[in-house]
């Protein structure tokens, strides 16, 4: 474990948590996530995150290296008891491997250097692989609940790792739906999840978020509504990120398939979406895509898409503010 001083030396508060670089006393640089204990549940949220991440080990997931916190030793039973205390303003930290090349949000929307298509395609497969692992290889399965470009970290070779399990929960095999308070990020959260300030998450809601990420990878700065409108007219390639043209190798057929897969994953009817395994079969094995018009039996933009259209700006896809929106503005 890193020392208390090295864990807390440069953390800055931001929302529910913050990330900073620090020095781990035994193995070099790490990333430190500070959990803010402003409420009674803060410590238990911290323990839940640590427990979830410690059970998940995959090359495309950010690796948890350890934890450190004030007035607690390394004994797990003692740590669990510490987590149950009701004190506020205590310092809680998770220590992760350092993924040094920033996040996908930055590279798609803020960096002047354009990510070429082969790299984008590999990023899509990396995240799909992580999602298959969480949904189908972990027992019980794990819901991420906040898949978005800002939670996709890149190493120096642009290998992608899914991060921020602060909103993750381990699923109950006997109950495929998790009911919780409103979490996630507007523009990426499945519209079917939302009801009266509560969110009903399931495997399909993660797939929806993955689909929006795929649209962001292929059609950066285009709304989902725009992509769908072009798809039903057989012109989905017109939605592609303009910066990809003339920028390295561009497989147009591959790009088209990923864009359509993004639309399939984000269909308004969760029963008609693919599983994460089926999505990966499209990405890795070239399995045929369905005709989405046949699935929806429509040639117009689905009504739930019209109600939940997002626009794209330098900060990524956003849902428009609405009096009916129980979550208010999007927070990255």
List keywords for this structure.
332 residues; glycoprotein; disordered N terminus; 3-stranded antiparallel sheet; globular; Phosphorylase Kinase, domain 1; 4-stranded antiparallel sheet; alpha+beta; Transferase(Phosphotransferase), domain 1; 34% helix
Q: How many β-strand stretches?
A: 13
CATH superfamily of the largest domain: Transferase(Phosphotransferase) domain 1
Mean pLDDT: 75
Largest sheet: 4 strands, antiparallel
DSSP strand content: 15-25%
CATH topology type of the largest domain: Transferase(Phosphotransferase), domain 1
Shape: globular
Subcellular location: Cell membrane
GO molecular function: ATP binding; protein kinase activity
GO cellular component, one term: plasma membrane
Region (Disordered): 1-24, 293-332
Task: Give an overview in words.
By secondary structure, the protein is α+β, with helices and mostly antiparallel strands. It has two domains: 4-97, Phosphorylase Kinase, domain 1, CATH 3.30.200.20; 104-318, Transferase(Phosphotransferase) domain 1 (Transferase(Phosphotransferase), domain 1, Orthogonal Bundle). Helices cover 34% and strands 16% of the residues. The protein is built from eleven helices and 13 strands. The chain has helices spanning 4-8, 42-55, 76-84, 104-109, 117-137, 203-218, 224-232, 252-265, 276-285, 292-296, 303-307; strands at 17-24, 28-35, 64-69, 92-97, 142-143, 152-154, 160-162, 169-170, 178-181, 194-195, 198-201, 311-313, 316-318. The strands form five sheets. A four-stranded antiparallel β-sheet has the order 1-2-4-3. β12 and β13 (316-318) form a beta hairpin. The longest helix has 21 residues, at 117-137. The chain is globular, with a radius of gyration of 20 Å. Mean pLDDT is 75; it is low at 1-26 and 303-332. It is a single-pass type I membrane protein. In the N-terminal section; belongs to the leguminous lectin family. In the C-terminal section; belongs to the protein kinase superfamily. Ser/Thr protein kinase family. It holds the Pfam family Pkinase.
């Amino acid at each position: 474990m890193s020392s208390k001083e090295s864990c807390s030396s440069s953390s800055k508060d931001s929302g529910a948590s913050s990330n900073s670089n620090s020095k781990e006393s035994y193995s070099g640089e790490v990333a430190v996530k500070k959990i803010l204990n402003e409420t009674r549940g803060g410590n238990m949220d911290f323990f839940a995150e640590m427990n979830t991440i410690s059970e998940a080990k995959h090359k495309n997931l950010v690796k948890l290296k350890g934890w450190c916190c004030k007035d607690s030793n390394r004994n797990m039973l003692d740590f669990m008891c510490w987590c149950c205390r009701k004190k506020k303003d205590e310092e809680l930290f998770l220590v992760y491997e350092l993924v040094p090349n920033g996040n996908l949000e930055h590279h798609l929307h803020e960096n002047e250097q354009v990510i070429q298509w082969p790299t984008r395609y590999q990023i899509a497969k990396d995240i799909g692989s992580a999602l298959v692992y969480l949904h189908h290889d972990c027992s019980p399965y794990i819901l991420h609940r906040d898949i978005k470009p800002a939670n996709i970290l890149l190493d120096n070779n642009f290998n992608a790792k899914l991060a921020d399990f602060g909103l993750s929960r381990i699923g109950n095999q006997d109950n495929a739906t998790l009911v919780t308070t409103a979490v996630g990020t507007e523009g990426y959260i499945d519209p079917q999840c939302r009801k009266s300030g509560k969110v009903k998450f399931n495997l399909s809601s993660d797939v929806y978020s993955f689909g929006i990420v795929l649209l962001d990878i292929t059609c950066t700065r285009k709304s989902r509504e725009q992509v769908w409108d072009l798809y039903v007219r057989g012109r989905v390639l017109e939605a592609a990120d303009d910066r990809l043209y003339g920028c390295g190798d561009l497989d147009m057929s591959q790009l088209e398939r990923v864009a359509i897969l993004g639309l399939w994953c984000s269909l308004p009817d969760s029963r008609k979406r693919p599983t994460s395994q089926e999505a990966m079969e499209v990405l890795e094995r070239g399995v045929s895509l369905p005709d989405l018009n046949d699935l929806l039996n429509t040639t117009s933009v689905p009504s739930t898409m019209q109600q939940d259209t997002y626009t794209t700006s330098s900060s990524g896809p956003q849902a428009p503010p609405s009096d009916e929106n129980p979550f208010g503005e999007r927070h990255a």
